[in-house]
Amino acid sequence: MTRRQEDPLRPLTAEERGALERLSRASSEPASHVARAQLVLAVAGGRSFTAAARGVGRRSGDAVARLVARFNRAGLAAIAPRHGGGAVAQYGDAARARILAEARRTPDREADGTATWSLSTLRRALHRAPDGLPGVSEDTVRRVLREAGRHWQRDRSWCETGVAVRQRKAGPVTVTDPDAAPKNG
């Protein structure tokens, strides 16, 4: 005999039932979403939490009870997984936008001490900026750039090939290598 459910599933609205049925048959959705939709539909069909779990290939009726309680509170939003543990992200959207804006900026040789960005010079520029991020690490900068679809070696701000600015007694001189084009192939 099964025990009494502490938080039984509330009646589903027609929109919720339709969305759950579409999601339970979807082949292009993540498997976790499909399984959760099938679980909620099985419980709505009168199955116990344990029977619904076993019907979807899961073992824990307690997990189904937690899903049903979350569905009662949040509706269809309970189908999508929440934060799965680990460290909480310290930098929000504003900080990520600030890192990307700094990476898009062409470095100033005098102020930044470089003609091209590397992760360490980008981190240093973010530390020094008045509106910057004083505690950001190179790893965070790398992750933000990767999440934005930038690949460091491909998107890096390189110097112009065959042209160099040299410091002379009379002042800076631009030196051009006439063989640069043949060397580059």
Task: Reconstruct the topology from this structure.
Layout: H1 14-25, H2 31-44, H3 49-56, H4 61-74, H5 93-104, H6 109-112, H7 119-128, H8 138-147, H9 152-155, E1 163-168, E2 171-176, H10 180-184
Antiparallel strand pairs: 1-2
What does this entry look like structurally?
- By secondary structure, the protein is mainly alpha-helical.
- It has 2 domains: 14-79; 89-155.
- Helices cover 50% and strands 6% of the residues.
- The chain contains 10 helices and 2 strands; from the N terminus they run H-H-H-H-H-H-H-H-H-E-E-H.
- The chain has helices at 14-25, 31-44, 49-56, 61-74, 93-104, 109-112, 119-128, 138-147, 152-155, 180-184, and strands at 163-168, 171-176.
- The chain has a two-stranded antiparallel sheet with strand order 1-2.
- A hairpin with a 2-residue loop joins strand 1 and strand 2 (171-176).
- The termini are far apart.
